[in-house]
Amino acid sequence: MNTLIVDDEPLARNELGYLLEQCEEVSHIEEADSIEEALERLLQQPIDLAFLDIHLTEESGLTLADKINRIPNPPIIVFATAYDDYAIQAFERNARDYLLKPFELERVQETVRRAEATLASKAEKSNEQDKSVAVYPVQMEDRIFMVHAHEILALEVNQGETTIYTTEKNYKTTEPLNAWEKKLPQPPFMRVHRSYLVNLDKIEEIQPWFNQTYQVTVGNHVKVPVSRSYEQAFKEKMGLKRSE
Predict the structure, then answer these.
(1) Could you report the per-residue pLDDT of 165-207, keeping only the tens digit for each?
(2) Coil, helix or strand for 213?
(3) What DSSP element (H or E) covers 236?
């Protein structure tokens, strides 16, 4: 994780830098003593986490936070200051934490761990969003159709052929169901049977089926069985009552 320390006091920068070096999540540390220098650092390379002092020489870390929040993909902001009466203004600027001087290693490590968790969650959501808007090529004979993930209702494999059900059209391909399971976002797609993947967001009806299992209706026409092997996981995803 790339970090930036913005403080006009060299000793304060050194102290915080030393503590950040003890955090295994931190891979690189940059320093700046003014708003202008901080913005230069932000333009030079991606910064994941920025520690801002409130009182800079004739400047304010709050002003810098306003500027940071206007740049694309801004870093996580943490205020690191000797003043405890600016917390409200700090959090109004989307600060994730507020550290008071003198800094303690455990407190700094906690802040860094939280930032790392936030970045990981953000990356995961971005990845899932990319998958959900993705378009997948499906070749049928001499034509290639582009199928959007959000249009897919369910997928079924039968005798080596995979059928992709959508609202408007069904597509058939020889690409294995396992390959589609790896490509499609989970959720909303879920394996509910060795022969079926289903888009949970498109389920219209759930009916009791043989041997205490279920059959689901996806869209308004596709019937998909839920096998006993996947029943418990399916019920948990759909918020159904668990079996005793």
Answers:
(1) 998 889 999 899 999 998 888 888 999 999 999 999 999 988 8
(2) coil
(3) helix 228-238
Distances (CA, A) of 57 to 54, 61, 63: 10, 10, 12
Residue type, position 237, single letter: K
* Token pair belonging to 56: 């800079």
Q: Rounded to the nearest 5°, which phi and psi values hold at 175? A: -65, 130
Please give the biggest Cα pair distance in the chain.
75
d(CA 110, CA 139): 50
Backbone angles phi, psi at 135, to 5 degrees: -120, 130
- Written as six digits, the tokens of 221 are 């026409």
Q: What is the pLDDT of residues 48-103, one digit of tens each?
A: 999 999 999 889 999 999 999 999 889 999 999 998 899 999 999 999 999 999 99
Spell 114-130 as b/e; 16+ CB within 10 A means b. ebbeebeeeeeeeeeee
Give CA–CA dist 241/239, Å, rounded.
7
Token pair for 129: 């969003």
Count CB neighbours of 2 within 10 A.
Answer: 16
DSSP 3-state of 235: helix
H or E element: which one contains 56?
strand 55-56
The reported pTM is 0.54
Give the whole-angstrom CA distance, residue 192 versus residue 206.
Answer: 13
